[in-house]
Specification:
This protein is mainly alpha-helical. The chain contains 1 helix and no strands. The longest helix is centred in the middle third of the chain and has 38 residues. The protein is rod-shaped and about 65 Å long. The termini are far apart. The relative contact order is 0.07. The structure holds zinc ion. The site of zinc ion has 2 residues, from helix 1. Keywords: Membrane, Transmembrane, Transmembrane helix.
């Protein structure tokens, strides 16, 4: 295999991994915001105001 193809496939792999991490970050943020809204959101006792 020549180096160009190997480098290109490595770039694709690292890009795919990066996209996967982005996806996980979004998912974790979404779950965390759901947990925050469920348990720690503003209510009568603890408002943001
Ligand atoms: Zn990204």
């Amino acid at each position: 295999m020549n180096n160009g193809v190997r480098a290109n496939s490595l770039a694709l792999m690292s890009n795919a991994f990066h996209e996967f991490c982005d996806c996980m970050g979004v998912l974790i943020g979404w779950i965390a915001s759901g947990i925050i809204q469920a348990d720690w959101g503003p209510n009568i006792k603890y408002t943001y105001g």
